[in-house]
């Protein structure tokens, strides 16, 4: 959120996943972690929906690789299925 009260967010991809492929990975970030008032209002879902629509309009197949439960929740809400589950590990610097 900036000084004017605007929440920032982005959706992007490192497309295509493989050479000559039309598959791209859905990747997004909404900057409201420190502003709980803006959570659960559909901002992330709206951002991702616009990304998916644009990807489809450009002839790409958007795939989802959820890195956390929030991402998984939005993916399932939009009809993505859990084909694989994996654990993510974080290295924490205790300095």
For the terminal residues, how far apart are their CA atoms? 28 Å
Uncertain regions: pLDDT < 50 for 5+ in a row?
none
The main pleated sheet reads as: 3 strands, mixed
Number of domains: 1
What does this structure look like?
With 95 residues, the protein is of the alpha+beta class. The two termini are 28 Å apart. It has one domain. The protein has a three-stranded mixed β-sheet, with helices on one face.
List the helices and strands and how they pair.
Blueprint: E1 9-12, E2 23-30, H1 43-57, E3 61-64, H2 69-77
Write a compact overview of the structure shown.
This protein is of the alpha+beta class and 95 residues long.
Notable traits:
95 residues, alpha+beta, three-stranded mixed beta sheet, 2 helices
């Amino acid at each position: 959120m900036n000084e004017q009260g605007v929440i920032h967010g982005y959706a992007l991809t490192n497309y295509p996943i493989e050479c000559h492929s039309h598959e791209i990975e859905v990747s997004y970030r909404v900057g409201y972690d420190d502003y709980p008032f803006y959570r659960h209002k559909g901002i992330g879902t709206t951002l991702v929906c616009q990304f998916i629509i644009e990807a489809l309009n450009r002839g790409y197949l958007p795939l989802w690789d959820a890195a956390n439960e929030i991402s998984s929740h939005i993916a399932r809400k939009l009809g993505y299925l859990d084909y694989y589950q994996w654990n993510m590990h974080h290295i924490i610097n205790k300095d």
